[in-house]
Amino acid sequence: VKIFATPTEGAINVANQIATLIKEKQSIGEKCVLGLATGSTPIKLYAELVRMHKEDNLSFKNVVTFNLDEYYPIEKNSIHSYWSFMHKHLFNHVDIEPSNIHIPDGEWPKEGIRKYCEEFEAEIEKAGGIDLQILGIGNNGHIGFNEPGSSILSKTRLLVLESSTRIANSRDFANLSKVPKLAISMGLSTILKAKKIILLAWGNKAPIIAKSVEGSITDQVPASFLQQHEDCTFVIDEMAANDL
Ligand code: GLP
Question: What start and end residues bound the annotated signal peptide (predicted)?
Fold first, then answer.
């Protein structure tokens, strides 16, 4: 666990780690495969990466990305889609190749969704696996949209959102009834296969951070499975560290 005085300092630290990894990979002619998250938490991180692209010449030409999750069903162009979120906060402002961007497709026909999810997993494998996975955390301990009860063996799939998650996320929608009931999310096994994981949390997440870091490993707190990963760091601010 790394504790910073403010979210800005935490976000800058993580942006620097990402930039270092991208440059290391560039210098040996390799792609850098990033797993990315949405939600309010990584917004400052993406803003810092955009700044580094504009002011420090950080290039994303060798970067391949896989996003954790997407609402289902949802149109890409909906202002509520994670597709729109990622383009607004990062992809529209850097030199990443559009073909290197992978976000679960909320428009995919339901009949073919199983196969689609298998292909999403296969794409990650084909890219050589995720070098660095960025995570946020839900107040119920979810990572991606893996709600409590998700199996450690779970893979990318269509799943049902908990009502507490829909209520928390309704702040982005006109009202609760507009929040999709389903989502496509990488599974816990998909996330745990990443070579390195950084989970970010700021503000009023102290109780769930304490349970995830110091509590027993249980499917009732999906983020607690991260204790079993050999290279996972929680980058949090002082408020989120309050119960540790
Ligand atoms: C959302 C996302 C998660 C995110 C979490 C926390 O539902 N699916 O990937 O980490 O909830 O969101 P926030 O960062 O806004 O607190």
Answer: none
The owner of tokens 């996003």 is 67
Contact status, residue 124 vs residue 103, Cβ threshold 8 Å:
no
* Number of neighbours of residue 178 by Cβ within 10 angstroms: 11
The 10 Å CB-count burial string (b at 16+, else e) for 83-98 is bbbbbebbbebbebee
The 10s digit of each residue's pLDDT in 38-57 is 999 999 999 999 999 999 99
Over range 123-144, report the average pLDDT: 98
Which ligand 1 atom is at minimum distance from the Cα of 161? 7
pLDDT digits (tens, 9 = 90+) for 196-207: 999 999 999 999
- Beta strands of 13-131 (E only): which ranges? 32-36, 63-67, 69-72, 101-102
The per-residue pLDDT of the chain, averaged, comes to: 98
Task: Select from 14, 36, 38 the residue to mutate for testing ligand 1; criterion: most ligand atoms less than 8 Å from CB.
Answer: 38
Which residues are designated catalytic?
Answer: 69, 140, 142, 147
DSSP lists the bridge partners of residue 132 as 34, 196
Phi-psi region of 128 (alpha: psi -120 to 50; beta: other; left: phi over 0): left
Three-state secondary-structure class, residue 175: coil
For residues 170 and 190, give the distance between their C-alpha atoms in angstroms, rounded to a whole number: 27
All structural domains of the chain, each given as residue ranges with its CATH number in brackets, are 2-237 (3.40.50.1360)
